[in-house]
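<instruction>
Derive structure tokens from the sequence
<entry> Chain with its tokenised backbone below:
===
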Amino acid sequence: MIPRRFFVVVATFLLSFLLYVDRVCISTAKGPIMGELNLTEAQFSWILSSFAFGYALFQTPSGVLADRWGARRVLTTVVTLWSVFTGLTAVTWSFVSLLVVRFLFGAGEAGAFPGMARAVYSWIPVRERGLVKGINFSASRLGGAITMPLLPAMIERFGWHDSFLILMVIGFVWATVWYSWFRDEPNERLGMTAAELEYIQANRQQAKNDPADQRKLPLGQMFRSGNLWLMMVQYVASNFTAYFCLTWLFSYVQKTYNLSYTQAGFYAMVPLLCGAAGNIVSGWLVDRIFSAGHPVASRRVPAIIGFLLAGLGLLISLRQTEAVSAVFWLSVAVFGVDMILSPAWSFCIDIGGRHAGQVSGTMNMAGNLGSALSPLAFSYLQAWTHGTNAFFYVGAALSGVAVLCWLFADPTKKIQEAL
């Protein structure tokens, strides 16, 4: 009999996939949208960042709601909201209207990963979490990768307005199925075998109900955790590079290497596919090191390797004169930066316990401030320095800072044991 937690992994995989399809579609539709709404490059960079600002600001509140209301209601609400705003993108008529809708789209999407973190805490044993988080995040990169060549084809067939409406309907379908099937705790799910239920409850933190676990986690106590601050800083570095690939990578390779619209889509797809691979490799490595009896190293080592690869790939890509070699090194960077996701989110579940949604949401809030700055930095640094090199130097430097953060991060220090 297939374990019921397998279906949770499949459902969150599809959620993560859809999340990034909807997120990246605005970048691949850049040309038609800018042309129809008469937008400048600077205005479009603000539209890209408006999503990240909305996404960042609502991370901690949505994480608190996930812990309080459960992943079933929160993820249903989140997907419904972001699908509505995906559809509303199709009826925007100006720079301001698109700016507002994309900000609200980001706010609506904010609870997705904190909600998934809360579901993983309840359903997935500790020793399996690294790979599960890796699978979840690999789906996001696969979604982004497939969107690069697929959405231009959809736009040519249906137009960009109808393409966004189609994506809205797909989101409604996922939300309906999730609410119908998922339950917040494994013992609430009909069809669970006694053996699987016992295994899950015996192999997650705080398996037995403890009245202390039901208490709220005050923000003041949470922010006294040195571990959390380290996670927030390193996630800024991670998202600064990752969000470039989801926003400006398509137009960067198209313009820099004089590619056609279709060629640029396929070239921009490759780094994101490598990012998906980075998530799987890192998730496997996290679980392998943890099972060998090294809980601290299981989070620290994959993340440090990832940031070293990210910095190296960014710097070497600048010296390439051909699209193939440049995309290869950018793929190394994205492979590396995506190795961070599994250990970082597993780390937040480790230190947050039943407050995993709130803690991971706070890390994601900080990280998405990095996401918000990334498209603006790329646009304005390019204008100020008359080239793209400065942006890549900043990304590499941030990766170096993140390595230092991970050298001091310790997943065995729970949030209640704040430094």
Observations:
- The chain is about 80% helix and 0% strand.
- The chain has one domain: 4-201+221-417.
- The first helix runs from residue 4 to 28.
